[in-house]
Design a protein that fits this description.
67 residues; mainly alpha; two-stranded antiparallel sheet; 5 helices; globular
């Protein structure tokens, strides 16, 4: 799933570890989400949306594209 998590995090000058700590997940989880290797659970996606005060749809793109 594509997302703009890295850009949002950069705007706040947060490291991956900063965001991971706020979400109570590992830095590796944040890295995997940002690189599209891991899709967050719905509760985690809601938590991310709340932290950035944005709707989930503005952070995560669920469109499937043909590769």
């Amino acid at each position: 799933m594509k997302n703009n998590l890295k850009e949002l995090r950069a705007q706040l000058k947060w490291s991956q570890q900063d965001l991971a700590t706020r979400l109570n997940v590992s830095r590796q989880t944040i890295n995997a989400i940002e690189n599209g290797r891991y899709d967050p659970s719905l509760p985690l996606a809601f938590q991310i949306a709340r932290i950035f005060q944005q709707p989930i749809e503005s952070i995560f793109d669920d469109e499937i594209t043909d590769s």
